[in-house]
């Protein structure tokens, strides 16, 4: 049976129109006005497959995830030139940090730069500090270092932004920033890499039922979790014991990218 998260419902598909997210953060819902499954960020590319009653049925480009977003939350597709490589930034009305800010953009948001100076990048939506952007063809190389940008971020089920993130959202942001393809949910992420045995290595993935964490060194991991209600470092042995004690079972997989 096909996975409805990744396979568009043929009974719902009436079009196939390229578009992109036009708000800082948009919930990707299971049904119109339904629960949040994931989130999409400013500039994320997508295909609009149907529009009705103010909702668009879409499929995200970055991971193939299907769901519903408000129809006024997306616009015409452009070719991004840069992405936000800082934890977050602001988009200003002028090339001046004292000018009014128009919106807050999160890490991995994608933008199209029209002109670039030493201080600011101009886009059709406003000006972004140049230091907060990286060209699209320049990728990060260390997922654990990227994940550290989210330390202290509040835990949010289905979250994918610096405003709120969950375990699989953290892993996806870290891996996609390093040009490593990564699906949206932890059960799908368990197919990444290869099974690993022995000592833990930096950037290994550890899985429990419904949870994933990224190893930062042989004794430590980073994860967004509902126990701390935040993205935190935690000793691996402590995490394994705590998760078992709270009734969520043992480690179910150890994967090496």
Automatic annotation (TrEMBL):
Any single GO BP term: proteolysis
Keywords: Hydrolase, Protease, Thiol protease
Pfam families: NLPC_P60, SH3_16
Boundaries of every NlpC/P60 domain copy: 137-257
An MF annotation (GO) of this entry: cysteine-type peptidase activity
InterPro entries referenced in this protein's UniProt entry, alphabetically: NLP_P60_dom, Papain-like_cys_pep_sf, PG_Endopeptidase_C40, SH3_16
Organism of derivation: Sulfitobacter geojensis
Family assignment from sequence similarity: Belongs to the peptidase C40 family.
Keyword Cell cycle: no
Protein name (record): C40 family peptidase
